[in-house]
Amino acid sequence: MIVALAGGVGGARLAVGLAAALPPRQLAIVVNTGDDFQHLGFTICPDLDTVMYTLAGVNDRIAGWGRADESWNFIDTLRELGGEIWFRLGDRDLAVHVLRTLALRDRVPLSEVTRRLALRLGVRHAILPMSETPVRTRVRTDRGELSFQDYFVRLRCRPRVRGFRFVGSRNATPPAPLRNVLRGEAVSAVVLCPSNPYLSIAPILAVPEIGAWIRRRGFPVVAVSPIVGGAAVKGPAAKLMRELGEQPSALGVVRHYGNLVDGWVIDRCDAKLKPEIEREGKRVLVTDTLMTSRSKSVRLAEAALAHARMLAASRG
Amino acid sequence: MIVALAGGVGGARLAVGLAAALPPRQLAIVVNTGDDFQHLGFTICPDLDTVMYTLAGVNDRIAGWGRADESWNFIDTLRELGGEIWFRLGDRDLAVHVLRTLALRDRVPLSEVTRRLALRLGVRHAILPMSETPVRTRVRTDRGELSFQDYFVRLRCRPRVRGFRFVGSRNATPPAPLRNVLRGEAVSAVVLCPSNPYLSIAPILAVPEIGAWIRRRGFPVVAVSPIVGGAAVKGPAAKLMRELGEQPSALGVVRHYGNLVDGWVIDRCDAKLKPEIEREGKRVLVTDTLMTSRSKSVRLAEAALAHARMLAASRG
Predict the structure, then answer these.
(1) Tell me, what's the ipTM?
(2) Which B-chain residues 115-134 have CB contacts (< 8 A) with chain A?
(3) A98 touches chain B (CB under 8 A)
(4) For residues A279 and A53, what is the distance between their CA atoms, to the nearest angstrom?
C-alpha cells in the first residue's frame, strides 16, 4: 500500500496518476485540512475538494480550484445583496459545501462525509482528511497573524511571512481508516506530492500520529519537488522559501525536508542539481514533473512509485 | 396609513399596486411567515421572498416563486450528490437564504434582515414579517398532520385537509415597527390581499396582537377575493374550501371571513354574486381583479383603496 500526502492542485494531479497506477485498496491519499474554514455558515475544505474534484475529473483545470462548467449566479447575487464575496463560491461547488456542512452538523465524521461525496462523484480511491477534528493554519506575517484564507485568498499572499501555526494539531485525530493504516504493516512507501511544504505538507506532518509514524518508518519516503526551475509550479512556495531564508530551488526543498525524505523526483530542468542533492545523501530520479495532462500525471506517478520500489530494494 | 396582509403571489401582486399608489411611510405590508421552514441548513421564508422579489421586479412571473433569470446548477449538482431536491432552490435565490440564515444566527431580528435585503434590492416600502419568532403552519390531513412544505411542495396539496394549526402563534411577537403601527392611530384601512384565507391570512390573524387589533378596529377592512369564477387564481384555496365544507366561490370567501371584512372587491365574472354578498351586509366593488400586469395591479390597488375610503366616509 502507498500513502500519499497531498495539498491542493499539485497533490491532486499526482493523486490522479497514483489512482490510475494503483487499485483503491493499495492507495490512501491523505489530504491537508489546515486550509479549511468557516465561511457564510459553511465548512469549506479547499484541498479535500480540489483532490476530490480532480480525481472525479470535474475540476476546473485553468483556475486550479473549483469545478469545471461552473456558474457564478450565487456569488454575483451575493455581491448585489452586500454579502462577502472575497472567497468565490460557484453554484455547483456550493452543493458540496451545503451537504458537508449539514452532515458535520449531524456529527458525521469529516472522513465519512468525504467518502460519501467522493463516491457520489465516482471516486473509489480513499481520500482521507489528515484529521477528523479541525486544524487551522495561521500565518505569522509582517501584518500580524492571519488566518490561512485571509492570507491566501483575501490578501493574495502579499504579506511577508515569518512562520506558521497549526492550531488544533496537537489534539488532531486522524480518521479511523487512516489510523488502521498507520498501525498496520501494509505500507510500502509514502509519497510526498508536489504540494507546498509549509502550507500543505507541514500541517499533515504536524498531526502527532502521522508525524510520529513517518519518523519511525520501515518504508521509504519519496517526494516530488514542488519547485521547478527555481519557481513554484503554482502558489506561493518559492516566495515563502525566500521569506523564510531557504533557497527557492529543488535543492532548497531537499534541505528543507532533510532526513524525512529518502528519495527525490526532480524535473529535467533541474537535472544540474542532481549531484548536489545526491551529496545530501538522497537518491534522485530526474524526469518530467509538469503534470499538464492526465497522461503526464500517470507517467510521473509511475516514476515516483518505481523510485520508491528501487529505494525499498536497496534498503534490502 | 394602509396595512396590507399578504401571503405569496396574489398578495405580492397587490402589494406592487399598493406600493405604486402609496409612498413608503403610508404602507405597511404584513407578510405570512407560517410557510417558513428550515431546509438544508437554511431558514427559508417563501412568502417574504415572493413579496420582496415581486416588489423589486426580479420575480419569476411564470413560476410564481423565485427569481427571474434564475439558474439551477446548485440544485442539479445537489441531485447528483444525493441531496434533498424536492424544494427547488435557484442559484440566485440561494444568496438570500444564505444571508438571512447568517443574520438570524447572529440574532438580527427577521424584520431587520428583511429590511436590509429588501433595501439592497431597491424596495423602499416596509415588508414586515407577521412575527419575529417562528410560527409554523401544520396541516391536518387524511394522511396525518404535515408540515406546510410537506403538504404544499412535496405532496403538492394532494392530501385531503381537515384543518390547520399555527404552531408558535400563541407567543408570536410582531416586529417593533409593526407594533408601533398597531399601537398608533395612523391606520386608515386594512387591506386583505387576494391570498389564501387558510394558509396566508389565517396565520397572520392568529398572531394575538394582530388579530386583537383588527377585531377592535376603528377603520374599515377591505378584502380582494382570492376566488374568481369559483376557482383560485393560484394555489389550493378552492380545493381547501371544498374539503373544509365551504363554498368555493367569492360568496363562500365572504362568509368565511364574516364580520372581519367590511367591504369586498370581487371580479367582474362574479358580478352576479354582488346582491347575495350585499345581503351579507357588505359593500361590494366589482372590477377586474386578475393582476396579469403591473398596471392591472396598480388599478386594482387604487380601486381597493377607493373602496376603503368610501367605507370610511360612510361610517362617518
Answers:
(1) 0.92
(2) 116-117, 120-121
(3) yes
(4) 39
